[in-house]
């Protein structure tokens, strides 16, 4: 089933600004169909080709960019079932770029980072799912138990060790991303050396084994900028399939304002005020709209957190 409106906070929904852009969903994953010999049930299938650089065919539609789907009479060999919407089954395959798909001209081949924020809810949700599951397949072709090539089952959602019979399912790595504020009008932003010049963002890090998300927030902030934090609160989440993360968004209040930056983790970090960020007098570049970092930061700038 698709995500009901009641699953979102009041006033939010797939197209609402209260939902991170990569968390939008407008299709039914139809998980029970995955175990059927033909998950499409004999119906024609819309198939999305994803190339080895994670790019997909895009054309300009009446309301903006659209994915270009290949209309096929049956479920594709080697395809991964994505679900359905409006009675139409969807699937994804790895493939090569072409100038046309199903007779429709392709304007460009773009990645999720380039086009994800501009797609409609249905295309955006399907694309995130397609990229995530195909990345899992690319990185898990062999059994971790025996080294044997795995066999793919359940329309791409299970890999099995042919020797032991052990099934392997897609995994998602949890990561925390947190806006650290002073309880008033300042926030800590940091930058990594590999980012574009002037780019700053909120802090982030992976959850370690045996650790809660809240504990990871406190640990990562202490490691990266030397701050102790309190009032750790969950905000929202967003998938980040590069290759297989789920970003868990939090806000937290710093107990002091003295930064001790670990330059092995980040290149620079400093405090910024709301006025600096709103007036453009802060960093030259904030995170792009596609990121949950920008979503949380924009909400803080609007006064949602204190």
Key words describing this protein structure:
306 residues, 4-stranded mixed sheet, 2 domains, Nucleoside Triphosphate Pyrophosphohydrolase, alpha+beta
Provide the gyration radius in Å: 21 Å
For the residues shown, what is the average pLDDT?
A: 92
Instruction: Report the CATH C-level class of the largest domain.
Output: Alpha Beta
Number of helical segments with 4 or more residues: 5
**Which range best describes the helical content: under 10%, 10-25%, 25-40%, 40-55%, 55-70% or over 70%?**
10-25%
Strand order of the largest sheet: 4-1-6-5
- How many β strands by DSSP? 18
How many domains make up the coordinates? 2
Taken in chain order, the helices and strands follow as EEEEEEEEEHHEEEEEEHEEEHH
Which architecture name of the largest domain does CATH use? Alpha-Beta Complex
Q: What is the percentage of strand-forming residues?
A: 25-35%
Major beta sheet, specifics? 4 strands, mixed
Summarize the structure.
Helices cover 17% and strands 31% of the residues. The chain is built from 5 helices and 18 strands. It has helices at residues 112-115, 121-139, 213-225, 274-279, 292-301, and strands at residues 45-50, 55-61, 64-67, 70-72, 80-85, 88-94, 100-101, 104-105, 108-111, 151-153, 158-160, 167-168, 173-181, 186-191, 203-206, 229-240, 245-254, 268-273.
